[in-house]
Design goal:
heterodimer, A: mainly alpha, 83% helix, elongated, B: 2 domains, 3-stranded antiparallel sheet, 11% strand
């Protein structure tokens, strides 16, 4: 096998891993019971999946200009994915707080209850 | 709170230099080439962007430990791969999906930057997600996937604290480091 063929095979393997992670994310989106758990499936396996896809692009198209443009793609994804996950998770938590039976411990609810009791005491 | 005397403004200007350099590097990465023209236009745009879209200055601690930064990066990549596989497996394996928990994690840092970096690092690793933050009390409320018993909850809390400790050791202020050591001794 020549060097170029080896790179193509490696790129193919990376593409396959990336695709598998995206598939798992899709399955998780359907199977996880509540919005918060779904956020894990929806936002996270993609980071590693994206890394694999970008690696495949870098391997198959090996010049530095391409790699240089791939780095900001990954960085911006890494900086923005947690923010969107946080905002959706926060909204989901506030919307479905009392009906959620999928949590074992909920220390945020305890803190909110304590704060509301405190506010009620002040208003009296 | 930062005071806005002439000296502190000048100092925050010096603290901005790493961020300006980063903007120039980003500009060159976006163009995909390193040339003098890109360097000059990048520098002009970096200054313009930070002047026009004014944000509160990011307060860097002025400390940076390369060894701990590398330790943090290596652990981060490992956690990212491990977490991705675990969440993917939780999604596709047969049987019911285990319950999760929302846990409060009291951070030791008092810096917005360290708190943000910890939140991003935790949120990027599959299995944990920051739902709510309490900036005044340095509290993170973390949603941890598949924590079905008390031991798993405690373990998830320790993982968040370990990530924070690595970031503080890499680039936290001396003050944060001191609090970290005291906290560890107390525990």
């Amino acid at each position: 096998m020549t060097a170029e063929e080896t790179l193509t095979v490696l790129a193919g393997i990376c593409l396959l891993f990336g695709a598998l992670l995206s598939l798992a994310a899709g399955v998780g989106l359907l199977r996880f019971p509540d919005a918060l758990s779904r956020m894990h499936a929806a936002t996270k396996p993609q980071i590693l999946g994206l890394i694999f896809i970008l690696l495949a692009i870098a391997l198959s198209n090996n010049n530095w200009a391409t790699v240089a443009t791939l780095i900001p793609v990954l960085l911006f994804q890494m900086m923005t994915a947690p923010i969107s996950a946080h905002m959706i998770g926060r909204a989901a938590y506030r919307a479905g707080k009392r009906t959620d039976k999928h949590l074992l411990v909920d220390e945020l609810e305890e803190a909110i209850d304590a704060a509301q009791a405190e506010a009620a005491r002040h208003n009296r | 709170m930062p005071e806005f005397s002439g000296r502190s403004v000048r100092r925050s200007w010096a603290h901005q230099i790493p961020l300006l350099l980063w903007l120039v590097v980003l500009w060159m990465l976006l163009w995909g080439s390193f040339s003098w023209l890109n360097l000059v236009t990048g520098a002009i745009i970096a200054v313009l962007v930070t002047r026009v879209f004014y944000l509160p200055p990011v307060l860097l601690s002025g400390r940076f430990n390369l060894r701990w930064a590398l330790v943090f990066s290596a652990h981060f990549v490992y956690d990212l791969i491990k977490g991705s596989i675990i969440v993917a497996w939780t999604a596709i394996r047969p049987g019911a999906v285990p319950r999760s928990s929302v846990i409060a994690v009291p951070l030791r840092t008092r810096s917005d930057l360290i708190m943000t970096l910890t939140t991003i690092a935790i949120s990027l690793v599959p299995g944990s997600l920051v739902v709510e933050t309490d900036r005044v009390r340095s509290l993170l409320y973390v949603h941890a996937l598949a924590t079905d018993d008390e031991a798993a909850v405690e373990q998830a809390r320790q993982i968040v604290l370990t990530v924070e400790a690595r970031i503080i050791r890499a680039m936290g202020s001396k003050d944060d480091l001191k609090r970290l050591v005291e906290n560890r001794r107390a525990a």
